[in-house]
Design a protein that fits this description.
Strand order of the largest sheet: 6-3-8-2-9-1-11-10
Number of strands: 11
Largest sheet: 8 strands, mixed
Shape: globular
Order of helices and strands: EHHEEEHEHEEHEHEHHHHEE
Radius of gyration: 17 Å
Number of helices: 10
Length: about 280
């Protein structure tokens, strides 16, 4: 049976590559801090040696829109193309190729039926920066196969907070019940308070520092009542119009019960802080 050897909760900051690929003498403070986070994640990946990365992320309206918006979807492919043309143009992200694991994906889909989750799946999936950036942070050469699990965090109505708690338990049971691989790292992709395209975008400070502080505490103490209370869109959107992607971390809290925390914090930076979570 497979073992979850580490769980990472990370930013998918779209300018990550542009900020961290500069020559050493041109790096900004933000770029250096992001590289420091990446180095710590890579140390964990090296230490735990996963066969595959399960990446729990969202789709930024690249493939799913109001004509077909799955709440939870698993990619079921042996290889993935990553990055869309607008992300290359706007963020300087490279096009990438990543391996997959169709058999393991199928195990997760089938196990979902036994635990109350009817996952949608896709055999024709391209990954955007929500998956590509965390993969680059964890495995810069993109050698480790990935299995993407995409959630609806951007198009209300969202699944409930309880549903994200249950997702963490279901994915853990599904992973641990698979014989397709032996060692698995799960990477949760998201953000804390964040505004994109609104009046608080590109501000020098966080949209809501109090929410950032509270949310890290709720996650680290697994305060599910507070996490579920903040989960409805009418509450999340008070803290920034893109704060819905915080929902993925509720799933992370449930999955990591009993694991050892290596790092749990919001890394302060200009604008929205970067979520930094590592469990082994």
């Amino acid at each position: 049976m497979a073992e979850i050897v580490s769980v990472i909760g990370s930013t998918h900051h779209p300018w990550y590559h542009a900020k961290t690929s500069l020559p050493e003498d041109e790096l900004t403070t933000d770029g250096r801090n992001l590289l420091g986070w990446s180095a710590q994640v890579q140390e964990s990946i090296e230490r735990t040696g996963p066969d595959v990365l399960v990446i729990v992320a969202s789709d930024h309206f690249h493939q799913f829109f109001a004509n077909n918006m799955p709440q939870f979807l698993i990619g079921r492919m042996d290889a993935y193309k990553g990055t869309f043309a607008n992300e290359v143009r706007e963020f300087g992200l490279p096009y990438v190729d990543m391996g997959g694991d169709r058999a393991f994906s199928t195990d997760l889909i089938e196990a979902g039926f036994e635990h109350g989750f009817d996952f949608a799946y896709s055999d024709e999936l391209r990954l955007d920066h929500a998956c590509v950036v965390p993969a680059m942070i964890a495995d810069p050469e993109l050698r480790i196969p990935v299995v993407p699990v995409l959630t609806n965090c951007g198009a209300p109505p969202f699944p409930t907070g309880q549903r994200f708690v249950d997702l963490g338990a279901t994915l853990r049971a599904a992973i641990e019940g698979s014989n397709a691989v032996e060692r698995v790292s799960v990477v949760y992709s998201g953000n804390l308070s964040l505004e994109v395209g609104g009046p608080h975008q590109m501000m020098a400070v966080s949209v809501d520092p109090q929410f950032d502080e509270d949310s890290v505490r709720w996650l680290s103490t697994r305060d599910y009542e507070s996490l579920k209370a903040i989960a409805p869109p009418r509450e999340l959107l008070k803290h920034g119009n893109t704060t819905g992607q915080f929902l993925n971390f509720i799933s992370m809290a449930r999955m990591t019960e009993g694991m050892v925390p290596i790092r749990e914090e919001a890394m302060q930076r200009k604008g929205s802080p970067a979520p930094c979570f590592i469990y082994e």
